[in-house]
Amino acid sequence: MQLLTLQPYELHYRVESTLGAFEVISDLRPGSARTGVWKLRATEDQKMYYLKTFSRKERWHPEVYAYKHWVSGLQPYVPELTAVYEGEGWQAILITAIEGTIMREAGLQPPALHASYYKAGQLTRQIHESQCGEWFGRPDQNGKPIELYHHSEPVTYAVGRGG
């Protein structure tokens, strides 16, 4: 059996300072140049987590912002943000694992599939109704625009992005 390790290696110590001793259960994106995803188990309480690494800050920032500001009211349907890490040339988040089956693997019958999509729509609506922003675009982890040229008008934003 191959021993799985986190990349970058420095991240191992950061996660250990958050969880204590832990085991890497699986590498879900082996060899990915963009993101890494590892399933972890804390030794003390056997709780499961996912660690996601990012090679680009512009992808990491919006996810951190979303976990900190948008998803707290969506429990138990979404993971909880446990920790945020940043190092030289990499960024990462540690989130709790939630039980369930990936939709595309669940094999739901049409009525159950419809109900699942309906619930997803309700949760999306809840996010949209939770806040009113002043501009359109991707936020950094503090809620400021990442794009140099952000827009206050949605059509201008969509057209500018090729939408």
How are the elements arranged and paired?
Blueprint: H1 10-19, E1 22-27, E2 35-42, E3 48-54, H2 57-69, E4 81-87, E5 90-96, H3 103-106, H4 110-130, H5 154-160
Antiparallel strand pairs: 1-2, 2-3, 3-5, 4-5
Give a quick summary of the entry:
This protein has 5 helices and 5 strands, in the order H-E-E-E-H-E-E-H-H-H. It is α+β, with helices and mostly antiparallel strands and 163 residues long.
List keywords for this structure.
single chain; Kinase-like_dom_sf; 5-stranded antiparallel β-sheet; Aminoglycoside_PTrfase; Aminoglycoside phosphotransferase domain-containing protein; Phosphorylase Kinase, domain 1; alpha+beta; globular; 163 residues
Describe this structure as you would to a colleague.
- The structure is a single chain.
- The protein has 163 residues and is an alpha+beta fold.
- It has a domain at 1-99: 2-Layer Sandwich (Phosphorylase Kinase, domain 1), CATH 3.30.200.20.
- It has helices at residues 10-19, 57-69, 103-106, 110-130, 154-160; strands spanning 22-27, 35-42, 48-54, 81-87, 90-96.
- It has a five-stranded antiparallel beta sheet, with helices on both faces.
- The radius of gyration is 18 Å and the shape is globular.
- This is Aminoglycoside phosphotransferase domain-containing protein.
- Residues 43-134 form the Aminoglycoside phosphotransferase domain.
CATH fold group of the domain at 1-99: Phosphorylase Kinase, domain 1
CATH architecture of the domain at 1-99: 2-Layer Sandwich
Strand order of the largest sheet: 1-2-3-5-4
CATH superfamily of the domain at 1-99: Phosphorylase Kinase, domain 1
- Report, as a whole number of angstroms, the end-to-end distance: 47 Å
- Name the helicity range: 25-40%
Class inferred from helices and paired strands: alpha+beta
**General form:** globular
Radius of gyration in whole Å, from Cα? 18 Å
Helix segment count? 5
Sheet having the most strands: 5 strands, antiparallel
What portion of the residues fall into strands of 2 or more residues? 15-25%
Mean pLDDT: 87
User: What's the number of extended β-strand segments?
Assistant: 5
What's the CATH class label of the domain at 1-99? Answer: Alpha Beta
Low-confidence stretches: none
* SSE pattern, N- to C-terminal: HEEEHEEHHH
Organism: Paenibacillus typhae
InterPro entries: Aminoglycoside_PTrfase, Kinase-like_dom_sf
Pfam family, one: APH
Protein name: Aminoglycoside phosphotransferase domain-containing protein
